[in-house]
Amino acid sequence: MIFEILERYGIVQVLPMDGIFFESKPLPAGVKLSSEMIRLNYIRLSPLREVKILSYHSRSRLYLWFVPPELIRARIPIPENFLLYLGVEKQDGIYRVAGDSPWAFVVEEGELRSTFPLHDPMALRVTMEEYDLREFREIDRQERERLLRLGRSRLRPADLAQFVDLKISRERLLPTLIERGTYPLLGVLALYAFVSYIQGERMQSELEQLSTRYRVLKEQNAPLKKKIRAYNRQVRFLEEFADRELAGIDPMQLLYDLIGLIRPGEDTRFTNLQVGSGEIRLSLESGEDPVTYLNRLNHLGYLRNVVIHSSRKLRKSNKKIYTYLMEAAFQKKDGQRKVP
Amino acid sequence: MKYSQLKLLALLIGLVLFVNYRNYLMPDRERLGREIALLQAKIEREKKLNASHIPPERLRLPWLDFFYDGTRFNYSQAMGDLQKTIQSVAGSCKIERLTWAQVPAKAERYDRLRMNFYLRCTPAEFFAFTDRLRMRGRLIRYDGLRIVPTRKRRDLQIAGRIIAYRIHDVR
């Protein structure tokens, strides 16, 4: 698919074998030759004087195509025999390609070995004997087109890259970049600017739509929000009110608890109870040990600093009046008795 | 002028135009994206609130069950009502005296309605009295409670202050 697009835009060209001379030379694995080195080493093999050398490093061989420069019209020229070689899946054999001037190519041990014009049937026999190959295949025009399509589809980007000559001298780099890159770069920048502008416009319009929608919803919810705000204000007020007004001791709670202070059978009675803001004064007329009541009062968790403030003996009886002083430390905010 | 020089000129002009476009004209898509996300979140919140259908009574606190309404009762009327309420729930508690000051004790948004009372009753009667008073609904509390047994022994003389509240603004 990419190959076809590149071909359509003249970036890739399939070079017919007419007028092209092919050589396949052994090369140790892992050796890579630069285009200068290839030219230096193999230009002598060229039957032509003015020639451009295309090369391809296979696993163990170096393929060389000597091409007259006027045949190359695209940036990436791919020789036809290479595509056919890929099309036949690198299977060993001799392949005769039909056409106005028929030619043949040889694949041996999975490598492209030779390409030559084939006018004389004797040449075919000699070649078969030379390579010791029995496989022979005739490729007619239709088959050729099919194999070229297959070859194109099997061509990997790495294969393609081997046919691209990107060697540019340092002095020519900037002029070449300007020469070749200006319009594409300007095109990309213009496209980026256009896309970003359109995208921005769309986002702006979406933002406006959302703002309108939000405004409408906000207006719809405004009365409810007002009520919620008022409700929250009231709740805050109630909390502050409870903290300020209801945080102290509840005298009724204290009364309930003091009822249990004097047990049945004890010779004791209340004589006075005063509940101020935080301070409690309790007087008991009793013939019992005053420490008993002191301990009982201390058992009420919310009373602190319980002391016997004074004692006074009564003349008529053996009893005494004990006055206890204490402080209430509890803050009963959620007392059920407080909020009806 | 050579063709490549023209291209160089075009490249420079193109770059200048692009840089200026990027600096001054290009929409800030990142900011717009943030604003859109924020608005979407806000819209979701509004939609949720819109769909919540909170009944109005849920947002109404029973203020006037707890407090005297400052818009309906002036200070004297509120004290009069409190006095009537105390008298009506007294039951077997004997109310000896109820007094109040002429000027209310003002707080920020409410008045404290302070009613001084003198009662004579048994402890059980006093508890019943308090319960009845609180069952009437409005919020009250005792302050400065003094309890002394009378000579009859069974009765208590109870003095103190009942505080109720009059609120000015219920909004």
What is the H/E order of chain A? HEEHEEEHEEEHEHHHHEEHEE
Count interface residues per chain for the largest interface.
Answer: A-B, 61 and 63 residues
| Ends apart, CA distance between termini of chain A | 84 Å
- Largest beta sheet of chain A: what is the strand line-up? 8-7-6-9
Can you characterise this structure?
The complex is a heterodimer of chains A (340) and B (171). Chain A is an alpha+beta fold and 340 residues long. Chain A has 3 domains: 2-163, no CATH class; 166-245; 251-338, Gyrase A, domain 2 (2-Layer Sandwich). Chain A is built from 9 helices and 13 strands. Chain A has helices spanning 2-8, 35-42, 80-87, 121-131, 141-154, 157-162, 170-245, 251-259, 290-299, and strands at residues 12-15, 21-26, 52-57, 61-67, 76-79, 93-97, 103-108, 111-117, 136-139, 268-275, 279-286, 303-313, 320-328. In chain A, helix 3 crosses helix 5 (141-154). Residues 330-340 of chain A have low confidence and may be disordered. Chain B has helices at residues 3-25, 29-52, 63-66, 75-89, 123-135, and strands spanning 68-69, 94-100, 105-106, 110-121, 141-149, 156-167. The model of chain B has no long low-confidence stretch (mean pLDDT 87). Strand 10 of chain A pairs antiparallel with strand 5 of chain B, so a sheet runs across the interface.
